[in-house]
Amino acid sequence: MSNKKPQFSKKTLQLAQKYAKQLSQKDVIELKSDDDNDIKSDDEELNIKDDQNEQNSGQQEDEQFEEQQGEDEENNVDEEDENDEDQDDEQNEEDDEQNGDQEEENQDEQEIVEQKEEPKKQKKIKIQQQVEEEQEQEDEQNELESYQEEEQQNDQLFETDLNAIMNRINKIIEILKQKEYGKFSREELLNELKKHLCTYYGYNSDLMSHFTSMFKPAELVAFLDANDAPRPITIRVNTLRTRRKELAQTLVQRGVNLDSVGDWTKVGLVIYESKVPIGATPEYLSGHYMLQSASSFLPVLALAPQMNERILDMAAAPGGKTTYIAQLMKNSGVIFANDTSKDREKALFYNLQRMGVTNCIVTNYDGRKFPKVMKNFDRVLLDAPCTGLGIISKDPSIKAQKQMRDILKHSHLQKELILSAIDCCKKGGIIVYSTCSVSVHENEVVLQYALNNRHVKLIDTGLEVGNPGLLKFDDKKFHPSMNLARRIYPHVHNMDGFFYAKLKKINHGPIKEEVKSEVQKPVVMTKKMKKKEKQMEKLRLGEARKQQQQQQQQ
Ligand code: SAH
């Protein structure tokens, strides 16, 4: 279909309009808008034929008329058209100018309106900003409140969780006591208990395993509880400077509430309450007392230094025990206060001066090498470096940090140091070994090592304070005299955990291998050894039965 619109003469259009009245509105529209090809009715076809006839005759008339008019007419039409166009342009320009002026006017008016409305707008913006700021503040406040609420809920949950854990701990302890394990084995229950104890008290599992092998469950909980509670502050009166009664009176006057530590010491005072800092009173600064845990008095009392003796304090810094030894010796004789740490020796010097100790020589050797420096001491104190498992209440970081490997590392150094301490002592002299650890590896195991390797024996400390040393631990068995050693537990004695033992040197030198195997029966029985022994026993029994049967047959 062609896009070109059909060209109709005036007549044809008049006819078309005449017939269009007979057509529907829709058809007329179609006729106006489109080619006549789509007209379908017979009448319409006929009309169109008429139209064509008329159109043809009309065309002929038009042609004749056009010929008469000639070319001039055509030119006139062109000129008229041009004139019309010029007029149109002028009119348009005028219109444009008018429109431009109108637009400018409109713009000016708009600007004036805008200028008038500007302060209003700014006011509106300000209010909007204020509202937004207030909304932000409100949001922040709400956020903070919901965060605090959440924290509170977490704390409550944590608390209820801890309570739930403690309930489970108590339940397991009860089950283990009654030995009715139900569907779980004892080992499974112990493992669960260990896990809960680590969570509740904040220990690493390695250290907790060590403690679970040392204590029965109920005692373990008591020990762990005690480690979370502070021990009472105690001081030792320096009798080189004052007397206990005098000092007690002065301190009471300063607002200190105190009492004696116990019957076993004449120099200990326990501080319940104080209005003044105990480590900064004039009496403290002038050396009338030492801030010292009560259990630290014990190894010095066990050492029992005598007037005019030669004493070695092998690991002395910061001098808590050295100053006590000096006081018991009334500054007579001589004390060699040794320590491997130069830094810690500064505190040792300060304490010796403050406390008025005048019989002390400070040395800085590795204790393991001291026998090469000096020997033949009347008494030697080895207050050995240790893991500090007895003073967890003073240093809670131990719970997370110390592991079995630290215990074994210390045990190794302690074994070397104890042999060295024995070697520094005269024949018949006294050696006191102590640590602020409750671990077996740092105490009984070290002493057993000394018994196995040097001519020493354990003797009574002369003190009642403390539980006896252990005779066995895991698959280890210790010498029966180990019960003369003393263990201090925080949950039993309300003092820092501690260990001390007194040895007497019988002879010089190491124990020879052949003598060692005769004198020192195997005290450490490993699981492997036990298993082998059982197997041998079975074999022996089997052979004995066979022989019996053979004899009966004969
Ligand atoms: N007896 C002191 C505390 C001693 S703590 C008092 O009552 O105040 C253990 C000390 O052992 C630490 O001062 C440490 O520096 C020291 N030490 C560690 N290894 C040593 C070694 N090989 N020889 C000597 N001293 C050592």
From TrEMBL:
GO terms for biological process: maturation of LSU-rRNA; rRNA base methylation. Residues 223-506 form the SAM-dependent MTase RsmB/NOP-type domain. InterPro entries: MeTrfase_RsmB-F_NOP2_cat, MeTrfase_RsmB-F_NOP2_dom, Nop2p, RCMT, RsmB-like_ferredoxin, RsmB/NOL1/NOP2-like_CS. S-adenosyl-L-methionine binds at residues 315-321, 339, 366, 383. Residues 1-15 have a biased composition (Polar residues). The active site is at residue 436. It is found in: Nucleus, Nucleolus. Residues 27-52, 534-546 have a biased composition (Basic and acidic residues). Residues 60-112, 131-153 have a biased composition (Acidic residues). The keyword DNA-binding does not apply. Residues 1-153, 526-554 are annotated as: Disordered. Keywords: Methyltransferase, Nucleus, Ribosome biogenesis, RNA-binding, S-adenosyl-L-methionine, Transferase. It comes from the Eukaryota. GO terms for cellular component: nucleolus. GO terms for molecular function: RNA binding; rRNA (cytosine-C5-)-methyltransferase activity. Its main location: nucleus. Belongs to the class I-like SAM-binding methyltransferase superfamily. RsmB/NOP family. This is SAM-dependent MTase RsmB/NOP-type domain-containing protein.
